[in-house]
Amino acid sequence: MTAAAAARRRAALGLGLTQTLAWGASYYLPAILAAPMARDLGVSTPTVFAAFSVALLLTAALGPAVGRWIDRRGGRPALTASNLIFAAGLVGLALAQGPATLFAAWLVMGLGMATGLYEAAFAALAAAFGREARGPITGVALIAGFASTVCWPASAWMEAEFGWRGACLVWAALHLVFALPLNRLLAPPRAAPKARASDASDASAAPPAADAAWTSAALAFVFAATWIVSVGLAAHLPRLLEEAGATPAAALAAAALVGPAQVGARLLEFGLMRRMNPLVSARLACLAHPLGAAALAALGAPAAAALTVLHGAGNGVMTIAKGTLPLALFGPEGYGRRTGLLMAPARLGQAAAPLGFALLIDAWGAWTFAVTSGLMFAGFVVLMALGPRR
C-alpha cells in the first residue's frame, strides 16, 4: 500500500468514527430525547422539534461560509472546532430551563452541525486528496451509516440511567475526550498547492460557466428532492406502511430493514461500484424508491419489505453521491463552498419535511408514496439530462 493510500484509509477511518458520534449526538438526538426534554421543560414535544428545525435552518444558511473556510484552511480546523461547539451546545441543552434556553442551545447545535457533519467532512477530504477523495468519502459514509444503530440505543440507555440531561453531558464529554483528539490527529490537512499542470488539468475538467450554472441547479434540485424524501420517510415510514395495509408489527419490521439496506448499498459502492461513474450510481439510486413503491402498489402489504430495502439502498448510495457528484463534475477546486451552496435547498427542505409529510399523510394516506416516487423519478430525469462527463 502506498503512503497516499494509507493516508486516505486513516482519514476515512478517523472521520468515519467522529462522524458517527457527530450524527448520533445531534441529528439523531431528538428521536430519543425530545419527549423527556419536553416533559421536564414544560413544553410540547413539537416545540422541541421546532427548535431542532431552527437549528437545521441555521445549518443551511451557514453551509457556504463553512465550505469557503474549509477550502482556504482545510477540514481539520473546522472539524475540531465543531467538537467544541457540539460540546457547548449539549451542555446548553443539559442546563436548559425553558423554551428560550432550549432554542438557544439548539442554535449552538446548528452551528456545530454546519461545521461538523458530512458536508464538512467531505469537503475536508476533497481539500486534502482532490479527485482521489471518492474512496475516503465512501468509507466515511459507510462507517457513519451505523450512527443511528449505535447512538439511538446509547441515548436510550443513558436517558434511563442518568436522565436526558445526563445523556447530553455524556455526549458532550465524548466530543471532547474522543472525537476532538481523533479529528485533530486523523482529519487530513489541506493539500499543498498543486503544480501548474495539475491545476490546468482540473480546470479543463470542470464544465464551462454556462454549463456549470445548469449543472449546479440540477444537482441542487436532485439533492433537495432526495433529501426531502429521505427525511420525510425517516420520520413517518412505519405509519405510511400501515396506511398501505401492513400491520403495525409488519410495518415496524419492514422499516427496520432500511438501515441494513443503506449499509449494504454503501458496501457495494465501496467495492463493485467504486469504478463506476458517480452519475450512473446516483441514477440507479434515484430509481430504487419508485421501483419499491410500484411493487407496493401492485402487490400490497406483502411488498413492504421490498419497498424499504430498495428505499434504504437508494438512500445509502445518494448519501455518498452528495459528496462524490460535485467532485466528479466540478473537481476539487472550491469544493467546500460549492457543496455548501448545493446542499442549502436540501437543508431547507429537510427542516420542513417532517411536518410537511405529516400533513400529506393526513390528507392522502398511502398515496403519499406517489409524491415520494415522483420526486425521486424527477431526480433521475434531471441526472439523465446531465449526461456523462469525463
From TrEMBL:
First-listed, main subcellular location of the protein, grouped into a coarse class: membrane
GO molecular function, one term: transmembrane transporter activity
Gene3D superfamilies, A to Z: MFS general substrate transporter like domains
Protein location: Cell membrane
Keyword Ribonucleoprotein listed: no
Coiled coil: none
Record Pfam families: MFS_1 (PF07690)
An example Gene Ontology CC term for this record: plasma membrane
Entry keywords, A to Z: Cell membrane, Membrane, Transmembrane, Transmembrane helix, Transport
Source taxon at top rank: Bacteria
Keyword Transport: yes
Spans traversing the lipid bilayer: 48-66, 78-97, 103-130, 137-158, 164-186, 217-237, 249-268, 280-301, 364-386
Protein name: Predicted arabinose efflux permease, MFS family
The organism of origin for this protein: Rubrimonas cliftonensis
